[in-house]
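Standup notes
- DV: blocked on the single-chain target, sequence here:
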Amino acid sequence: MKILIQHGDQRLGPYTDAEARAALGSGLVRPGDLAWREGSATWIPLAGLLARPAGLIGAPALPKAATPQIPGLAIASFALGIGSFLCFVTGIPAIIVGHMARAQIRASHGKLTGSGFALAGLIMGYVGTCLVGLSLFISLILPAFFSAGERGREAIRMNTGRQIYFTCKQYQADHHGKMPPSLTDLTPHYIKSEDARKWFSDPAHPESGENGWIYYGSAHPADWDGGKSALLVSKIARGGRNVVVHFDGSVTRELTQPDW
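- DV (later): unblocked, structure below
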C-alpha cells in the first residue's frame, strides 16, 4: 500500500513502505511528519504509521497547508510607527519591535508573514524619530542663536557707549567743563560724520539711520550722585535691558524705561 507524507508545506509520495523507510533514513523526511497509508483512518506521525500494520479503512482528506499568520510584533511596530508622527516616544519602540518582528518572521521559515507591516513600522519609526529630533534641535539652537546675536549687539552698544563717553569728556575738556548740548555737536570736530552714523545708530537696525541713544549730558550736572547719573541710555524695546553709560564712565545693563 502506498504512503503519503506531509513534510512542512510539501506533500511527498506516494511511497511504498520500503521507500518511506529509506526517505526517513536519509533525512528527507522526519519521524514526526504526518503520514497516511492507504486504508488508514487518519494522518499520524510517520514513525507510528510504519510501525502499524496496514488497515482497510478508506483514506481521509489530506490536511490543508497551514495559513501563515501575522505576528503581533509586526502589527505593534506598524501601530507604533504611525504613532511616532503624533508622539515622538513611540518612534524608538517602533524601530525595536519592527526589527524583532522581521527576525521572528525570517526564523519561521514561511509559517509567519507580515514583513511588510514590520518594514512599514520601521520606516515610520525612523522618519518620526528623525523629524522629532530635528524639531528639538531647531527649538534648542534657534533661541541660543538669537540670544548670541542679542549679546553681540549688546556688546557693541556697550563698547560704542564708552567711545561716546570719552569723546564727550574730550569736548568737556575743550569747553570749560561743559558737556556737549547734544550728540550731534560732536561732529565733525570730534567724530567724523561716517563714524557718527555707526556710533549713534541702533546696532540692531544700523541701516535705519535712527539715533540709538538718549543723551542726558546737558540735563544733569557732572557731579550728580557722585557721577552715577546716566549720561547715555541705549534705545531698545520697552521693558528690556538698556545699556547705561554713567557720568563717571561706568557702563551697566539695567532695566529702564527711557523717555523717547
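- Follow-up: The helical segments are 17-26, 46-51, 72-83, 91-107, 115-174, 193-200.
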